[in-house]
Structure to design on (152 residues):
C-alpha cells in the first residue's frame, strides 16, 4: 500500500496555540517530539504519513535547515538542502520498512532538494538507506552524526 504524505502547516492559525494535527491516538516512543506548540518557528512544517488512511509516521522538516560547519569533509550543501529534523514511525509500525519508504517518498516528492539529517541514535537506519555519515571532530557521543544521500 503506497504511503500518503500530508503536509501540516500552521497557515493563519495562532503561533501560540497551534499544534500539528497529528492523530494523537497513535502511539509513539518519543511523544515529546510532536506535541509542542512550535511558537518559536516562523513557518513550522510537519508531515503526517498515512497508510490506508491510518497514521504510521511523522516527520518534521526544517527548510532549509542549518549545517554545522565544524563537521569534517562534508560536501557543500547550498540552499537546495532540506533537513529532516525528526522522523518517527509509530511504535506498532516499526521495523517493517515504513521508515525507509517515508524517506524515499520524501526524496521523490522533493527531487530538487538535498535531504539531510542529524541522526538521533538511528545511525544504522540512515546508513541502511545508503546515506553517507559525517562525524563532528569531538565524536558521536557529543555530536549527532550528519547523514546525507550520496550523489548518484
Ligand atoms: C528510525 C526509524 C524512523 C526507522 O523506521 P523503521 O520503519 O523502523 O525502519 P525500517 O524498517 O525501514 O528499517 C530499515 C533499516 O534500518 C534499521 N534501523 C531501523 N531503526 C534503527 C535504529 N533506531 N538504529 C539502527 N538501525 C535501525 C533496520 O534494522 C533496517 O535494517 P536492515 O535494512 O538491515 O534490515 C524508527 O525506528 C523510529 O521511529 N525510531 C524512533 C525515532 C528515531 O530514532 N528517529 C530517527 C531520528 S534521526
Amino acid at each position: 500500500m503506497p504511503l500518503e504524505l500530508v503536509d501540516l502547516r500552521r497557515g493563519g492559525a495562532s503561533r501560540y496555540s497551534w499544534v500539528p494535527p497529528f492523530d494523537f491516538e497513535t502511539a509513539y516512543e518519543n511523544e515529546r517530539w510532536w506535541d509542542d506548540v512550535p511558537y518559536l518557528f516562523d513557518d513550522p512544517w510537519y508531515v503526517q504519513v498515512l497508510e490506508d488512511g491510518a497514521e504510521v509516521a511523522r516527520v518534521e522538516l526544517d527548510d532549509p535547515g542549518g549545517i554545522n560547519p565544524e563537521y569534517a569533509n562534508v560536501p557543500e550543501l547550498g540552499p537546495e538542502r532540506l533537513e529532516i529534523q525528526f522522523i518517527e514511525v509509530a511504535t506498532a509500525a516499526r521495523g517493517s520498512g515504513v521508515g525507509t519508504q517515508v524517506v524515499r517518498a520524501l526524496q521523490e516528492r522533493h527531487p530538487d532538494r538535498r535531504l539531510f539529517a542529524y541522526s538521533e541514535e538511528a545511525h544504522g537506519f540512515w546508513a541502511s538507506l545508503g546515506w553517507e555519515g559525517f562525524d563532528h571532530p569531538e565524536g558521536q557521543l557529543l555530536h549527532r552524526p550528519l547523514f546525507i544521500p550520496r550523489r548518484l
Notes: The chain has one domain: 3-113.
